[in-house]
Automatic annotation (TrEMBL):
Xref: InterPro entries: PsdUridine_s_RsuA/RluB/E/F_cat (IPR042092), PsdUridine_synth_cat_dom_sf (IPR020103), PsdUridine_synth_RsuA/RluA (IPR006145), PsdUridine_synth_RsuA/RluB/E/F (IPR000748), PsdUridine_synth_RsuA/RluB_CS (IPR018496), RsuA_PseudoU_synthase (IPR050343), S4_RNA-bd (IPR002942), S4_RNA-bd_sf (IPR036986)
A single MF term (Gene Ontology): RNA binding
Superkingdom, taxonomy of origin: Bacteria
A GO cellular-component term linked to this record: cytosol
A Pfam family the protein falls into: PseudoU_synth_2
EC class of the enzyme, as a word: isomerase
Lineage: Bacteria, Bacillati, Bacillota, Desulfuribacillia, Desulfuribacillales
Protein name: Pseudouridine synthase
Keyword set, alphabetical order: Isomerase, RNA-binding
Organism: Desulfuribacillus alkaliarsenatis
GO-annotated biological processes: enzyme-directed rRNA pseudouridine synthesis
């Protein structure tokens, strides 16, 4: 037997927290009966579990690394008919979802999976998984500007956690800066650099934890290797 919200996350419906919200809303039935009890136990091999009337079941877990090109949106669909990242997954039969987002003008590493529990933990800042970005910015920041990034920047949604920031190289009076953060706010790196007066000209995410885009051309992807998945789960206490 397994707790209902854990089973839903295992089926890739949503994270456990989101699954709990679905249960509370009355969207989930077990054997035809609406269940709103958080601790409700189900038999994955015998019970008929539906969300909004659609039957769910466990499926093979998929973990994909994608090097997102610029010009793609990180959504499953887009009302403006822009290109979406799922268009790049030509031979992936399972339905997967991105962990976090990169905006349309940002390239680099994305993780996509149907493992809701892993996705929730990977995205949560409490696990402090490093995300490393390379940003070509306008101008060259001085030591005081870099110190602001390292100390925390006051944004409209609160102060950022301390970041690691260093200049990698100078190109035509513009700097390429490596920034490491472990939060995942919307357009966070761009807003941080705007706040110190050095707007982003080009941005890419190079690493998430120990995983990198090395060896992946833009638009290409691969599945996590078994040893990579084991290490990732170890870091997330799964």
């Amino acid at each position: 037997m397994e707790r209902l919200q854990k089973y839903m996350a295992a089926c890739g419906v949503a994270s456990r927290r989101k699954s709990e919200q679905l249960i509370e809303s009355g969207a989930v039935t077990v054997n035809g009966r609406v269940i709103k009890e958080m601790g409700y136990q189900v038999n994955p091999h015998a019970d008929d579990v539906k969300v909004y009337g659609q039957r769910i079941n466990t499926e093979e877990k998929i973990y994909i690394l994608l090097n997102k090109p610029r010009g793609y949106v990180t959504t499953a669909s887009d009302p403006q008919n822009r290109r979406i990242i799922l268009d790049l997954l030509k031979d992936v039969q399972h339905r997967v979802y991105p962990v976090g987002r990169l905006d349309i003008d940002t390239s680099g590493l994305l993780i996509l999976t149907n493992d809701g529990d892993l996705a929730q933990r990977l995205a949560h800042p409490s696990y402090e998984i490093d995300k490393v970005y390379l940003a070509k910015i306008k101008g060259i920041p001085d030591a005081a500007a870099l110190e602001k990034l390292q100390s925390g920047i006051q944004l409209e949604d609160g102060i950022t956690a301390p970041a690691n920031a260093r200049i990698i190289k100078i190109e035509n009076n513009n700097a390429v800066v490596e920034i490491t953060i472990h939060e995942g706010r919307n357009r966070q790196v761009r807003r941080m650099l705007d706040a110190i007066g050095h707007p982003v000209l080009r941005l890419s995410r190079e690493r998430i934890g120990f995983l990198s885009v090395e060896g992946l051309k833009p638009g290409r992807y691969r599945q996590l290797q078994s040893e990579e998945l084991i290490e990732l789960k170890r870091m997330l206490d799964i």
